[in-house]
Amino acid sequence: MTETKVYRDKQDRTSKEWQLLLDYIDKVAETGQEEFHPRRDLGLEVWERITVLPNEIGKLTDVKHLMLYNSHLERIPPVIANMRSLEVFTPYTSPRLRWFPYEITKCSNLKESTISTRKLYGNYKIKLPFPDLTQARVEFEGLKTTCGICEKVQQENELYEQYWVSLRVATDVVPLLISVCSEACFSLIPKGADGYIPEPHKGGRYK
Asked: What's the CA gap between 107 and 31, in Å, rounded?
């Protein structure tokens, strides 16, 4: 099977669509709305030009339903952990969203998900191979890397290791990208879900 690679962040952060999305996030945060539904509220012409959710989603602490249906998203930032009220996660029919940040496991109220699992890395039926993290790191624009276990922020002289692990998130098993700062934190990464690669891994060789 052909080796896969993590999509490069190519979101145009100078576009009017990006600014409209930022304004929408501010509105949802300020009004305390419980549903974030950019496709409906901004329109398809705006939504189809968004490939990365802004780091500003960390402001959405009252949102209970993250509706990302029919998106062109390729990645979601780790600050999703700040969405402490999140209960329902719906990125269904987002075919380029093939993995998620480990930090989504910190949304303790998340109980329901609808994800296009056939497109995910390591899906138990399709077995889409994981990208090789020994060849390239995943960086999030505008964010310092943070340990997924102890939450220590990476300093300039440090380089955190990144791994894949497949865990249950709400009602789906999904591939998660985790960064860790030490062997001690690595040892605390949960074991992979039944039927999936049990240990955290770098991808590549598990084609």
From this structure: 21
End-to-end CA distance of the chain: 7
Integer Cα distance of 72 and 35 in angstroms: 19
Residue in the structure block whose two tokens are 């300093």: 155
Cβ neighbors of 113 (< 8 A, separation 6 or more) are 88, 89, 90, 169, 170, 171, 172
How far apart CA 197 and CA 192 sit, in angstroms, is: 6
Spans in the chain with pLDDT lower than 50: 207
Q: Is 182 exposed, middle or buried (0-12, 13-18, 19+ CB in 10 A)?
A: middle
How far apart CA 37 and CA 71 sit, in angstroms, is 11
Tokens standing for 121? 């890395």
pTM of this prediction?
0.94
Pairing status of strand 88-90 against strand 112-113? parallel
